[in-house]
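Dear Dr. H.,

I hope your travels went smoothly. While you were away I took the liberty of generating a structure for the chain from your last submission, since the lab meeting agenda had it listed for discussion. I wanted you to have the full record in hand beforehand rather than looking at slides cold. The sequence, exactly as received, is reproduced here:
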Amino acid sequence: MFSRLKNLLQKFLSNARVRNITIGVIALLVLSMIPFFNAPPPHVELAAEALLENGPKWFTNGLLTTFLVDIIIILLAVFAVSRMKEIPGAWQNIVEMMVEGMWNLTQSIAGHGSANSRKFFPWVITIFIFVLVSNYIGLLPGFGSIGIYHSPAESHAQAELGKQLAMVGGEAVAVAAAAEEGKPVLVPLFRSPSADLNMTLALALISVFMTQFFGVQALGMRYFTKYFKNPFKDGMGAVVGIFELIAEISKIISFSFRLFGNVFAGEVVLLVMAFLVTFLLPSIFYGLELFIGFIQALVFMLLTLAFFTMATVSHDDHH
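The corresponding predicted structure, in token form, is as follows:
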């Protein structure tokens, strides 16, 4: 047994790449346990925070980042169109592949070659790109760490979170949280738009409103007969219509909270993991958030497309 261990140790020492990687991993894990290298207690706020302490409350870090996302998407679109060539480069290939993939996906749901596909495509691909960029921008360095100091009245949530983390990280966290009371709190300058319930609610309202718009455009006013029926002629249909109306309104809630909950919870997990183990471990969750960010954008886009398509089908034809 000792000879096997000796042989394994010799092989390990002889392979410089494996040896250096292993030593680096161990060194980073050891550094994570040293208080000097610990990250500060995470600043977590459920709602988007006003950037100007004495300014308008509607101008939040989430709204500022939404403007930034809009500018990024516009610049990427202008850059992609202005440099189009017959022999595409790397960036043009990526854009064409994404647009073609979204177009094929739209046709597979709305119908190949149908007018609905051409009508729905600009809406759903815009939603997909906007949500995707909004999800990913919150993972960039500086989000949550660059900000403006406000009066200590807003530091209560941060202190409470620090006290809760003391159950995992030790009493030193509770002491640090208590020390933060009475000190100015850092309000992050940027916040992922998808982690702002105002933005996800606005997207949900747009999606549901356009569903009704396309339904009326395709079927006229008889579109609303699936919600409102004469109870004296069709009692069961009238009851079902009420449930249909409730389901339509509930889409706003499900759309809003699904996207907001997943993205906000992911960002909190990243902050907590970075606080507990500064190096290496957050990278695993970072990769997971990249995957979840893409899935959430795709789910929002597919559900919107499915609702658009179902709204244009007559209720009687559907049955």
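Two observations you may find useful: Strands lie at 147-150, 185-188. The CA atoms of residues 85 and 92 lie 8 Å apart.

With kind regards,
E. W.
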